[in-house]
Design brief:
Order of helices and strands: EHEHEHEHEHEHHHE
Helix content: 40-55%
Strand order of the largest sheet: 3-2-1-4-5-6-7
């Protein structure tokens, strides 16, 4: 299927590794011109070069911290009129809420709620004017099924989810869609750190915890980042214009609910 994206432009945040990189690679494979963003220059530039080589698409690396105005300004200077925006940021640390103070909550909100909203605010009117826009926010399956030790993430990402629920209905008539992708246990560095935290909290070997989590999933495996990227690319496609305001789980069936 031709997704109808060739020649479009995309900003992909946290694109140096993991799920963000998989989204950038999938979009690049569809002929989308990329501006890939991350904080660590060496890792980002290496990733950009590999994406460029693999897809043949124009790929510009912007080293920036999306939680700061300076960082967002740098991103928008490189790509002021994106057709596609992929909001993504590493989740805040796991822990016990009793140990978090106000500064911990502000950091979580800045990264996982406020920065995505600021980037949407800066790009959405241009998308409306051009009558094409696709925004995908990478959140977490914990939005649907909260995990106690990920309270900072639960709170910040749920706030973004509530905001998007209203905004997405206001832009759909202009062919601008906004959706959230909720990853489950994908084989990423973030998963490894969460498994290590769980092992520490439960005083169990990390190998044992990893096997338990893997085998508890109905698919009996962790997700592959390529699967996530392909889903993101479809949501950005011309064919996905009737999908908006949705929270799409990609979790191998681990969420047990009907709705």
């Amino acid at each position: 299927m031709d997704f109808g994206l060739r020649g479009r432009t995309a900003i992909v945040c946290a694109a140096s590794m993991g799920l963000g990189r998989s989204c950038a690679t999938a979009l690049g494979g569809e002929g989308v011109k990329l501006v890939v963003v991350a904080r660590r220059r060496e890792i980002l530039e290496r990733a950009a070069g590999e994406i460029r080589s693999a897809t043949g698409t124009e790929t510009v690396a912007v080293v920036a911290d999306v939680t700061t105005k300076e960082g967002r300004d740098a991103i928008l200077a490189a790509c002021p009129n994106p057709d596609i925006l992929i909001n993504n940021a590493g989740g805040p640390p796991a822990g016990d809420f009793r140990n978090w103070d106000r500064s911990d909550w502000i950091k979580a909100l800045d990264a996982n709620m406020l920065a995505p909203i600021e980037l949407m605010k800066s790009t959405i009117d241009g998308m409306i004017a051009r009558r094409f826009g696709r925004i995908v926010n990478i959140t977490s399956h914990a939005v649907k099924a909260p995990i106690a030790m990920l309270g900072l993430s639960n709170g910040a990402r749920s706030g973004l989810t509530g905001f998007v629920a209203g905004l997405a209905r206001a832009t759909a008539e202009h062919n601008v869609t906004i959706n959230n992708l909720l990853p489950g246990t994908f084989d990423t560095d973030r998963l490894k750190s969460n498994l290590q935290a769980l092992a520490t909290n439960t005083k169990r070997p990390v190998e044992e915890v990893t096997q338990d989590i893997r085998s508890s999933n109905p698919s009996r495996r962790f997700g592959r980042t390529e699967e996530f990227g392909a889903t993101c690319a479809f949501l950005c496609s011309a064919q996905a214009g009737y999908i908006t305001g949705q929270n799409i789980l990609i979790d191998g069936g681990s969420y047990p609910g009907t709705f």
